[in-house]
Amino acid sequence: MWLHRVVRAVRLGSKSLMLHKLRSALTVLGIVFGVSSVIAMLSIGEGAKWEQEQEIKRLGSDNIILKSVKPPEDRSANVATEHVIEYGLKYDDLTRICLTVPTVKGGVPARITRQETRYGETAIDARIVGTVPEFLKAVNAGIAAGRFFATLDDEETVCVIGAMIREKLFPVEDPLGKDILIGMDFFRVIGVMSVGGGATGAGSGVAAEDRNRDVYLPLGTMINTQGEVLIRRSSGSFEAERVELHQVIINVADIGDVEPSANSIRHLLSRNHVKQDYEVIVPLELLRQAERTQRIFQIVLGSIAAISLLVGGIGIMNIMLASVTERTREIGIRRALGARRHDIVVQFIVETVVLSTSGGLFGLFLGISIPMAVQHMAGMRTIVTLSSLLLSFCISVSVGLIFGIYPARRAAALDPIEALRHE
Amino acid sequence: MTRASSGNGAGARNGAIVGLEGLSKIYRLGGGEVRALDEISLAIPEGEFLAIMGPSGSGKSTLLNILGCLDRPSAGAYYLGGEDVSKLGDNALSMRRCRFLGFVFQSYNLIPQLTVLENIEIPLFYQGLSPRSCRERSCALAERVGLGDRLDHRPTELSGGQQQRVAVARALANDPLVILADEPTGNLDSHTGEEIMDLIIGLHGQGKTIILVTHDAKVAANAQRIIRLADGKIVADERREGAPHVAA
Questions:
Q1: pLDDT tens digits, residue range A227-259?
Q2: CB of B237 within 8 A of CB of B208?
Q3: A122, A270, B21, B40: which could form a disulfide with B77 (CB 3.0–4.6 Å)?
């Protein structure tokens, strides 16, 4: 019963709107842009958030990462007296942390340098990481072929290469068992890492490394072959620095203990280091911070969307008011033929809702295609969520309802006699 | 010619389909008041064909608006089908228009964006009939006024006479107690005017109660009874026993 009334009212409304196609189209433009911009911005934001989260997760949310940082004033002050600059984390730091902070499960030390890596004719600049077998678990990485080194491999000349290194050095050959030249020593490849998510363009504000270009050595081997002092040649002069550990990944037993442990570690390190020659990165904190940024982003988006939909709604109301004046006579006729005020209100509200809903539908299609185009052209990841589609569509329907009420009431309030006399 | 008397109104409640008792309409304009209708009493039995005549400003339109439930009197009572509707609210009046009244206007008053069929359907729609029965009934009505082949035309594609036929069909859609015709031939040439009058006379022949407002004596001559208004009062109430169509 009421269904055919609704169908009929919608048909009648669409018919009246189709009489002025251009006018109706221009009127809904505001809603189209409002809805599509909401969907597009939300999906781009969602994509950026996803990428950021992936990177932070790669660092491990139950990890605390300590890094050695060269203190800026060191260079000018010490270069005259000392030729070797000494800074960064010590083996003692790791031992102290493991022994004094009770929530810490373990620490994975790593020394990091850059060296030319060569196999046959091919050479590639790689990041050389000297570490311990526990490293694999700490960074959630996997092995594609062969194995990672074990405790027994310490001080053996073996290495595990990243997926990218394998691709460059061994495009066709099986790398396992081959010897590659790193610096001045040969190392036997015993394993290949599986492809990990590389650092991508958008949203990579976090210090996550591209592990595909790494070569891993046992820590003992690294110290034996490369020594404690690293000599680098930069723009004609030599630069020597002594860093015991470049990076330590501290693993905490429970995720709830991450933040208090981080505070204890900060405190501990500050007592033993005169200079700020280290950095404490807590992925969990970064995650929280990213969430906060995301929330602000969403509030900004929300207000932009609200304003554009408000403007669209006012546009619709304006046109509907004009339409009511234009159709005064029709209203008079309908009233004379038995339409109640209520019937007239329904007629005009339905018309407005049809208008705004069709705008919402167009906006939906536009809003889905914009992120696709962005993803295709700019290479940014975008995620269109169902909830953003539903949200913006519901908003467009309710804009029609809200901004249709006033014109419809104006139409219904007309005196039928006056309306019939209207030319 | 007999003078209008209050005795006519006394019978309003019983037998008469339309009854007016001491009906007045007063407009307050500026400081003064204008009595558009002054204590009108009238009884119209079922099946009567009544013509209301009078010069402009005599209160014809005001009376028609009240009879058509579009307006409320300032004083007095209006019995429509035995029920006093003079003090009903807007929704109730809409309902009375929807159920009991059919309008034919001078300027046809069809809705331009709707087809012939859809125009005829409007009163049925507000009665809440199902789309199918709406369609069947309005097709039959279009057939009845001789427009069965024009169902999907727009009013602008029709001649004046055809448009008025559509309006007559629309007035019949709800099977009303009373058909109110306001100068139905006013915009038509004399030939098509006669055709429309023949249609209305035919409806009367089928037992419809018709109230016709006109200032054309020739048109009024078709009615059984002619009422003349002047300054808001009934000045003449004339019964014509030998009305041409009754004889025929």
A1: 777 776 656 666 777 888 888 888 888 878 888
A2: no
A3: B21
Is the Cβ of A70 closer than 8 Å to some Cβ of chain B?
no
Name which of B65, B123, B125 is nearest A8 (Cβ-Cβ).
B125
Q: How far is B237 from chain A (nearest CA, A)?
A: 27
Interchain contact, B170 vs A337, CB within 8 Å: yes
Helices A341-378, A2-18: inter-axial angle, 10-degree rounding? 70
- The partner residue sitting opposite B97, judged by closest CB among A16, A19, A337, is A337
Q: What angle do CA B239, B245, B248 make, to 5 degrees?
A: 125
A333 to chain B: closest CA residue: B109
3-state secondary structure of B22: strand
Q: Residue A294: phi, psi to the nearest 5?
A: -60, -40
Instruction: With 0.95 as the threshold, say if the pTM is over it.
Output: no
pLDDT 10s digits, B185-233: 988 999 999 999 999 999 999 999 999 999 889 999 999 999 999 999 9
- Measured between CB atoms, which of B65, B109, B126 is closest to A343? B126
Tell me the sheet residues that pair with B239: B225
CA distance A153 to A284: 33
ipTM score here? 0.90
Picking from B118, B33, B98, the residue whose alpha carbon sits closest to that of residue B85 is B98
B94–A335 C-beta distance less than 8 A: yes
What confidence tens digit (pLDDT) does each residue in A68-84 have?
888 776 555 445 445 67
